[in-house]
From TrEMBL:
Highest classification ranks of the organism: Eukaryota, Viridiplantae, Streptophyta, Embryophyta, Tracheophyta
Transmembrane segments: 21-40
Renumbered ranges of Solcar repeats: 20-104, 113-197, 214-293
Compartment(s) where it occurs, according to its Swiss-Prot or TrEMBL record: Mitochondrion inner membrane
Topology in the lipid bilayer: Multi-pass membrane protein
Protein name, entry field: Mitochondrial phosphate carrier protein 1, mitochondrial
Keyword Hydrolase: no
Length: 312
C-alpha cells in the first residue's frame, strides 16, 4: 500500500512539475556544482595561472612546481569561496531553470527537434545563471592570479567595487556568456542524447527497468561525455575571461589579437578537459543522487518512439 502511494507520489511530482520538483532540482544543482567546484580548486588555480601567465607557466608540471615553491601549498586553496558560492549559485539556476524552461518550451515548441528544445532551454537558464555568477568569478580569477589582490570574497568584493564599481564586477559578463552559453547548450544536449543512446543501444532496456545504480551509471557516462565536449567548445572564451579580469588586455579584440586565434582554442585545453570532464561527471552524479533520494527519476529523456528496444 505504502509503496504504491510512494510510486504514485513520484509520478505526480514529475508529471505536474510542481514548485517542489523545481526546488529539488535547484537544490541539487546548487549542492552538486558548489561541492565539485570546491573540490577542484587546486586544478583551477593551475588553469587560471597558465592562462594569465603562459610564458612563465608552459606546462602543468611547471606551473604546479613553481607556484608550490614561490607561494606555498596554501596557494592551491586560493579562490575556494568564490568557486563554492559562485558556482553553487550558478548551478542552482543552471539546473533548476533548465528543467523549468525545458517543460515550457516542450509545450510551446511541440513540432521542433528535441535538440532545439535542449539548446533554447539551457541557453535561457544560462543567461540568468551567469548574471548571478559573474561577480563571484571576477573576484575568484583576481584572487587566484594576483596573490596580493585579496584573500577571498570578504575583502575582494569591497576592494574591486571601490576601485572599478559595478563595471568591474560585470566586466567579464559578455565573455562569460560566450564561454558558458555554448558550454551549457552543448553540455545539456550531449547529456540528453547520450542518455538516450546508452539506454537504446548499450543497455537495451527501458530506463524504468534498470536499477538505481544502473541509472546512476548511465548518468556518469553521459555526464563525462557532456563535460568533455563542452569544455572543448567553450575553451576560447575561458581564455578571454581570464585575460580580461587580470588586465592582460582591455577589450575582446585586444585579447584575441594578443593570444592569437589558434591559441584561444589550444591554450590550457588539456588541463581544462582534466578539470571540466570529471567535475561535470560528479555534478551529474550528485545532482541525480539528490533527485533519487527525493523520490524523483534520474535525468535525461529516452525517445518514446523506441520504447520496445533491444534484441527481439
Amino acid at each position: 500500500m505504502n509503496s504504491k502511494l510512494e510510486s504514485g507520489g513520484r509520478r505526480r511530482i514529475c508529471e505536474e512539475f510542481s514548485p517542489g520538483y523545481y526546488g529539488v532540482c535547484a537544490l541539487g544543482g546548487m549542492l552538486s556544482a558548489g561541492t565539485t567546484h570546491l573540490a577542484i580548486t587546486p586544478l583551477d588555480v593551475l588553469k587560471v595561472n597558465m592562462q594569465v601567465y603562459p610564458v612563465k607557466y608552459k606546462s602543468i608540471s611547471t606551473c604546479f612546481s613553481t607556484i608550490l615553491r614561490e607561494q606555498g601549498p596554501s596557494a592551491f586553496r586560493r579562490g575556494w569561496s568564490g568557486k563554492f558560492l559562485g558556482y553553487g549559485s550558478q548551478g542552482a539556476c543552471r539546473f533548476g531553470l533548465y528543467e523549468y524552461f525545458k517543460k515550457i518550451y516542450s509545450n510551446v515548441l511541440i513540432d521542433q527537434n528535441k535538440s532545439f528544445v535542449y539548446f533554447v532551454s539551457s541557453a535561457s537558464a544560462e543567461v540568468i545563471a551567469n548574471v548571478v555568477l559573474c561577480p563571484f568569478e571576477a573576484i575568484k580569477v583576481r584572487v587566484q592570479a594576483q596573490p596580493h589582490f585579496a584573500k577571498g570574497l570578504a575583502d575582494g568584493f569591497p576592494k574591486l567595487y571601490a576601485s572599478e564599481g559595478i563595471r568591474g564586477l560585470y566586466k567579464g559578463l559578455i565573455p562569460l556568456w560566450g564561454r558558458n552559453l555554448p558550454f551549457s547548450m552543448v553540455m545539456f544536449s550531449t547529456f540528453e542524447h547520450s542518455v538516450n543512446f546508452l539506454y537504446q543501444n548499450v543497455i537495451q532496456r527501458k530506463k524504468e527497468d534498470c536499477s538505481r545504480p544502473q541509472q546512476l551509471g548511465v548518468t556518469c557516462l553521459a555526464g563525462y561525455a557532456a563535460g568533455s565536449i563542452g569544455s572543448i567548445i567553450s575553451n576560447p572564451a575561458d581564455n578571454i575571461v581570464a585575460s580580461l579580469y587580470n588586465k592582460k588586455a582591455d577589450s575582446l579584440g585586444m585579447v584575441v589579437k594578443k593570444i592569437g586565434f589558434v591559441k584561444l582554442f589550444t591554450r590550457s585545453l588539456p588541463i581544462r578537459i582534466m578539470l571540466v570532464g570529471p567535475a561535470v561527471t560528479l555534478q551529474w552524479l550528485f545532482y541525480d543522487s539528490i533527485k533519487v533520494l527525493s523520490g524523483l527519476p534520474t535525468s535525461g529523456e529516452v525517445n518514446t518512439d523506441a520504447e520496445e528496444y533491444g534484441p527481439t
